[in-house]
Amino acid sequence: MKLDETDRKILERLQTDANITNAQLASEFNISPAGMLDRVKRLENSGIIRRYVALVDAEKAGKGMWAFTSVSLSVHQVNSLENFREEVKNFSEVLECYYVAGEEDFILKVALKDMREYEEFLLHKLTKIPGVNKIKTTFVLSSVKFDTKIDVAVNNKD
């Protein structure tokens, strides 16, 4: 889908405040409410807008310990890779999982309550996945930057 300048500005605005009403958004852009609704629906239906979510403060929600865990598998056949992917999708501790090139096969971003919870996750979940060969974890001391906003003006040049 080709984005025009108005689409890009709408995406920027929605990434700042997804709770804005259609009427408010239409007013800001001098577009009729029906026209704005059509534009937003088109962005949703095309998959550019995947979903709307609330950003939860992990620390206040009791999950203030974050870690990046690298995992290497012993076998690199399709079924082993797919099995790992499917297992990890079921772990609530895992916020993000990336299949990567390099020394490791996967990098997981995990959010936990404390070191005890990490140990439970490690011993009773992650190491139970067949084929896991090596695990390396880096614990986050503090967050320097955390943002979910995609700069559509720069990254989506059709």
List the helices and strands and how they pair.
Blueprint: H1 5-16, H2 22-29, H3 33-45, E1 65-73, H4 78-89, E2 94-99, E3 106-112, H5 115-124, E4 132-139, H6 152-155
Antiparallel strand pairs: 1-3, 1-4, 2-3
Helix pairs in contact: 2-3
Structure description:
By secondary structure, the chain is of the alpha+beta class. The protein has 2 domains: 5-54, Arc Repressor Mutant, subunit A; 65-139, Alpha-Beta Plaits (2-Layer Sandwich). Helices cover 37% and strands 19% of the residues. The chain is built from 6 helices and 4 strands. The chain has helices spanning 5-16, 22-29, 33-45, 78-89, 115-124, 152-155, and strands at 65-73, 94-99, 106-112, 132-139. Strands 2-3-1-4 form a 4-stranded antiparallel sheet. A hairpin with a 6-residue loop joins β2 and β3 (106-112). α2 packs across α3. The longest helix has 13 residues, at 33-45. It is elongated and about 55 Å long. The mean pLDDT is 94.
